[in-house]
Specification:
Helix content is 12%, strand content 28%. The chain has 4 helices and 16 strands. By secondary structure, it is of the alpha+beta class. Strands 4, 5, 6, 8, 11, 13, 14 and 16 form an 8-stranded antiparallel beta sheet that branches. Strands 7-12-9-10-15 form a 5-stranded antiparallel beta sheet, with no helix packed on it.
Length: 390
Amino acid sequence: QTGAQFGEMLDHFDQARALKVGLWNGRHPDGYSTMNIGRLYEFLEFYVAERVPKMPAALSSALGNVIAENFGFTDGQVPPDRFAEEFGDDYDAALDAYEREDPVRVVFGSGTGANEVGEPGGTFETTFSSWPPREAQATKWYLDAGSKLSTEKPAADDGDGRDGDGVDTFGFDPEAGSITLLADYSTLEPIQHWNWTHFPDGKAVAYETAPLEEDVVVAGSGYLDLWVGANASDADVQVTVSEVRADGIEYLVQNGWLRLGHRAVDEDRSDELEIVHPFTADAYEPLPADSELVEAKVELPSMGQVFRAGSRLRIVVSSPGRNHVTWTFQPPEGVGADTTYRVGRGGETASALVLPVVNLDVDAPATPAPCPGLRGQACRPYYPLANHPG
């Protein structure tokens, strides 16, 4: 098991004889779910047994039921063999076809594509030649006045004090760090019932797009280019990406965290979508006095999400907490109930969300996933959060 940044490793396997990557929303055991066990079997058959993968019918039936029992579902079905019918026992031809496939398989919407709600299985899937996808385009949304995410960069302040080169503020939430998504975590619970709590008014800032006119597919890592200050020598920030659907349900997509003293970026290892921080003592720099705004790029680990037409893309900036299943957070020394953050928007301090958008025809059901339903993704009724201008 790895941390959320595992996606950054996938473009470093450049000397492997063969590479097969499976990506999906879900939880730790999902690698051996019926959705994925056939792919593991294929790999072992091709490279260990050196034969065309043909899972015996008795094994397939028994394995599906054993997996379903371990996951807490009624039944399970291992997908049919993909190569035996076309290639028979021609190992070389089957292996050639296998190795010509795109190495990266991405499953979207796991939890609503199988027989039972919450069961591993996507609503649709696609493949890419690499991860992050080469076709991903860095797309920006700017933090704007009125709690908006805008595609156009807000202009500098024109002196009327209403918009442009402004600042929103929020306070440190002393309770958030100890609050998790679940009171009782169980890897075997079929459908996860979430306790995704809201930040109180004044303890976070939120920004949302207008309802999307068409589907937006995000695949890869991104970041929030955040202009931020605080009345402390160091402070932590949390960035939360979510989808607010037209039916009033909000689904958690991804989180990013950064201790602002470690905001230095390793330019040699970073690119337009992947941000790498050195996290070394030499690169550490305290926050300036008087809450002066500094640029801090908060990385957002790999994600694969379809923001459907009619939904809104939302980000929340806060101190850490409330959004993780088991992790809790302790603030740096000097941060407490009187700590205040300042977030810049517009002009020279225009904060912007940068996400990897791919042009992909979405073959997914028109009916949205129930809440709860998507594996590993918390959901709740949407609750608006008012920003407080500085």
